[in-house]
Write a structure and sequence with these properties.
By secondary structure, the protein is an all-alpha fold. The chain has 5 helices and no strands. This is Transcription initiation factor TFIID subunit 13.
Length: about 140
């Protein structure tokens, strides 16, 4: 039997707010910054499907899903904090997210974000054309 190929990840996520994270982890079931996490279970269904798609069991253990969800929420919070840090504005903009994802390690994420933004604009244009053609048909029938 041939040896199984070894798969290694070249990406290691290290949150930029390690001190806050360490303080929060000592508080039991508390999330980032000592606040109780309100995101528990928000991504569970999608994570189960993603984990299955990437080779995990059809019904992964709840503990595994919970850990993956914590990692995901930590990453999202870290990206948002990084995006907000320079300007200290109250709202995130697309440009803030582009700047936060401009690190070489996030190049694929930035490309995916750009692709999704393009598709969103494409859908808006298609809807506008569809509504315009409906308006033209309605004016011809009158």
């Amino acid at each position: 039997m041939a040896p199984r190929p070894s798969y290694t990840s070249s990406y290691t996520y290290i949150p930029s707010y390690r001190d806050t994270l360490a303080a929060a982890s000592s508080g039991g079931s508390r999330g980032v910054g000592g606040k109780k996490s309100t995101f528990r279970g928000l991504f569970a269904k999608e994570l189960r499907n993603l984990m299955y798609g990437f080779g995990d069991d059809r019904n992964p253990a709840n503990d595994t899903v919970n850990v993956m969800e914590e990692i995901l929420v930590e990453y999202i919070v870290d990206v948002c904090q990084t995006a907000l840090a320079p300007g200290k504005k109250a709202r995130l903009s697309i440009e803030d997210l582009r700047r936060a994802l401009s690190r070489p390690a996030d190049a694929k994420k930035l490309a995916r974000m750009e692709e999704l933004l393009f598709m969103q604009e494409d859908i808006k244009r298609a809807r506008a054309q569809f509504e315009e053609s409906d308006m033209n048909q309605a004016s011809y029938q009158s």
